[in-house]
Design brief:
Length: 380
């Protein structure tokens, strides 16, 4: 056609700076913002198909320009359907294995196992009667949500179902959701449990055998040193008589920092792993280092001073420190189970039925209305 003549209707469209919206939006910045908003609207992803209108239009135009069909305006609807169909068509290409299972589908399959009951209904009714009292995880999550923290409702419910499966597998007396620790690769979901009486004694026996072996080794070393000293001549320079301090033994299961047993998993639905008991050396070293968790329990801890154990031991040490330092309650809410324990300073406490809560304003203003109801860990 060539350039438009002044008497033709299209005159001026090819002039630089011309826009049919100039009479509506005069400000250049406002016009650019309107364009960006329009593009952002077109880029919204559909929750049903996972596509957006901007890419769909681009694919339609590409198909039209490549094929250049006749009477395009009459078959534009069919072209749109063909473009959508091509997105979901199963490509049978033997040279490349395409990932057909979406990550969201895999996550849904893992969580699906939490909702499936194994066995008959009668068996589950018996299990439910014998099952230890699980705290209401959803109610606790609701109160945390009022403070603006915590997990989502879906994740809290998945964790509740996962804890329920844990109580069916392990000989657990009480079970509680301790919390969630974030890691670089994976996260940790932590359950705090108390095993039934008579359970978990194998670890104690193993520990005692190890201590006896160590004591025998020290005796043999001492006898060997005495024999060497007798053989040495008096003219040789004196040797150091320094002996390292004895290693502090770990607390027995059910007392102190090992009062509870902790199970961890990376996601609700994955198998639970029991953490080992914590030792004083691990807690002392954990105070001196700062390390990110990876999410793998067998990962080594590279630090200075060197940590005696792997990430499972480091995680257990930090759980013990957090548990000892962050459990607070209104003063008088708990009481000692026995009077003898109150005199000896025992760590067994129970709720006080005669407790009368102070006003909320007083609890907010003054810290004297709060108390730690869990023993703190000693420096050594």
């Amino acid at each position: 056609h060539g350039p438009y003549q002044p008497h033709e209707p299209g005159y001026g469209l090819d002039q630089p700076g011309y826009s049919p919206y100039e009479d509506q939006i005069l400000d250049r910045k406002a016009r650019m913002l309107a364009i960006q908003n329009a593009k952002a609207y077109l880029l919204k992803t559909s929750t049903r198909s996972g596509l957006n209108l901007y890419d769909h239009f681009a694919n339609i135009l590409t198909k039209i320009l490549d094929e250049q069909p006749a009477n395009t305006v009459d078959i534009i609807e069919n072209i749109s359907k063909d473009v959508k169909w091509a997105q979901f068509r199963k490509k049978m290409d033997t040279l490349r294995d395409e990932r057909l299972i979406l990550p969201t589908f895999e996550a849904a399959e893992k969580c699906k196992a939490l909702f499936v009951k194994e066995g008959g209904e009668g068996q589950h009714e018996e299990l439910d009667e014998e099952m230890p009292a699980l705290p209401n995880v959803m109610e606790t999550a609701f109160y945390f949500e009022q403070a603006g923290i915590g997990l989502s409702k879906d994740e809290s419910y998945y964790i509740f179902l996962s804890l329920k499966n844990l109580t069916n597998v392990q000989p657990i007396q009480t079970c509680r959701f301790w919390g969630k620790i974030l890691g670089l690769e994976m996260n940790y979901i932590i359950a705090e449990v108390q095993l039934r009486e008579g359970e978990g004694g194998e670890e104690e026996e193993t520990g005692e055998e190890g201590e006896e072996t160590t004591a025998e080794g020290e005796k043999e070393m001492g006898e060997a040193e005495e024999e060497e000293e007798e053989k040495e001549e008096e003219a040789e320079p004196p040797k150091s008589t320094y002996k390292p301090p004895p290693e502090i033994p770990k607390e027995e299961n059910g007392t102190g920092t090992n009062k509870y047993v902790y199970f961890v998993c990376n996601e609700p639905g994955k198998p639970w792993v029991k953490l080992p008991p914590v030792t004083p050396a691990q807690i002392v070293c954990a105070r001196k280092i700062k390390k990110f968790f990876t999410g793998r329990l067998d990962a080594p801890i590279v630090s200075f001073p060197p940590f005696p154990g792997n990430e499972a031991n480091y995680l257990r040490a930090q759980i013990a420190r957090i548990s000892a330092g962050t459990h607070v309650s209104p003063t008088g809410f708990y009481q000692f189970a026995n009077e003898d324990e109150e005199e000896e300073g025992g760590d067994t406490h129970e709720e006080n039925p005669e407790f009368e809560p102070p006003p909320v304003a007083e609890m907010v203003d003054s810290l004297t209305t709060w108390a730690h109801h869990v023993k703190s860990i000693l420096k050594q």
